[in-house]
Amino acid sequence: MLIARLKGGLGNQLFIYASARGLATRHRRELRLDVTSGFTRDLFERRYALGVFNIRADAASARDCFGYPGGRLHRAFQVVLNRHRSVADRSYVREQHVAQSEPFSKPFTDRTVYLDGYWQRSAYFENVATELRQEFTLRESLRKQVLMVEKMLLSECSVAVHLRGLYGVSATGKMVAELPTLSNGYYRAAIDLLCKKLESPRLFIFSDGTDPSRLLDLCPSAIPVSEVCKGMEDYEELWLMGRCKHHIIANSSFSWWGAWLQGNREHIVVSPRMELYGQLMTTPPNWIVVDV
Question: What confidence tens digit (pLDDT) does each residue in 235-250 have?
Fold first, then answer.
């Protein structure tokens, strides 16, 4: 069995699940999810958010997630104990103790292995990309208002432009508000690039609860999705972002997934260089990275 500890917002949870699914499939293990312990001390009161998708993993038992008296102490002991073993011989694998070059090619020797980290590398789940795009479809029907916006996105040469809100904690452990902000220069360069490559693109702003005015100043004809479809849940916004035909993403796991879920071969994604903005996530080789 492979147990993945979920934590963070929706984008981070998608990375954790996808990487664990790729690893479990590669090594023929059952995947279970720790859907509680990663949220017990969350400063922003975030909770398990993947239940709206058609994922294929059950919740792990409380005991398997250190949910018993003395469990926190036992977890800390396991972290220290496993840190000095080879990755294949660990029963507790913490991301901070795994080299980025580690491919997880060797099978684990322990019967139950616990994964703790954000695992934001697309290489971890390339082997199950097709299956994941099927699993990350919604269990329930969309609201009429959301369906109307979806129809608009599918009928035009739609470009999702994401403006990240400054809240939360990044995968590096730093507060997002302390990280560098994407400049207007990045968005201007990305918009100009796509306008040269596409015929009659229509920009749709996904502003993550942030005032979209700075992007409207750059492109007054853009449509702020949050104003057209008010009161969206995170998964609804992500779904709509994924229905756009092209993407300009922010230094954000949320818009990373909005772009990745669009699997069309002619799909164009423009991304900032993530490491310049305190991010660990890697970008697929066919995405265009703009250094501004």
Answer: 999 999 999 999 999 9
